[in-house]
Write a structure and sequence with these properties.
By secondary structure, the chain is an all-alpha fold. 69% of the residues lie in helices and 0% in strands.
Length: 190
């Protein structure tokens, strides 16, 4: 059930993957697969982010250090939303950096979907948005150094922000459909 009078229904971006995992696999396998998927997503995303900023050696060191960091393992290994927020935040940044660097709108859209999932895992993750938005201004992704900066950087920025916002809206709309079909409200995030 969606627990309409409680806050649980606001965390659909964490509940839906768990629901799918527990309906596809046995309970023990589902728990392992669910948590390992979020763990691997977080570690891979951190590697991707650091590789773009500081190179492969620093990325490997960071990913291994993060992957062995006990508070991260604990957060990604238990059933509370912390692990989902961590994984979705890192995935948001990895996809955003790749999308901005390659000027690929579909990656920016996917980053927006991950940002929506981050937000809909725990509304408190909204405090992460400023640290994500700092990557949008032109010149932050290394394009200028490689001579790949678009002729009108602010127009490109506006388009990327629109695609990113569209991803958040798409994630919210998808989870609203899930909420309504499970007997909850369309505004599950309220």
């Amino acid at each position: 059930t969606m627990f309409p009078p409680t806050y649980y229904g606001t965390r659909l971006a964490w509940i839906v993957p768990g629901y799918v995992a527990y309906h596809v696999f046995s309970p023990v396998a589902a728990a392992v697969i669910l948590h390992l998927t979020f763990y691997c997503t977080a570690v891979w995303s951190l590697y991707s982010i650091v590789r773009r900023i500081a190179g492969s050696s620093a990325a490997l060191f960071s990913a291994v250090a993060f992957g062995l960091y006990l508070p991260a393992i604990r957060a990604l290994g238990w059933d509370y939303v912390d692990g989902a927020v961590i994984a979705y935040t890192l995935l948001t940044l990895a996809l955003l950096m790749a999308g901005l660097e390659a000027n690929r709108r579909w990656l920016t859209l996917a980053s927006g979907v991950a940002a929506g999932a981050m937000l809909h895992s725990n509304i408190g993750a909204a405090f992460m948005f400023p640290s994500i938005l700092i990557w949008f201004p032109p010149g932050r992704t290394g394009l200028v150094e490689r001579g790949l900066q678009p002729a009108r950087p602010w127009r490109s920025l506006a388009m990327q922000l629109l695609w990113w916002g569209g991803g958040i809206v798409a994630c919210t709309a998808s989870l609203s459909i899930v909420s309504v079909s499970a007997g909850g409200n369309w505004d599950f995030f309220m």
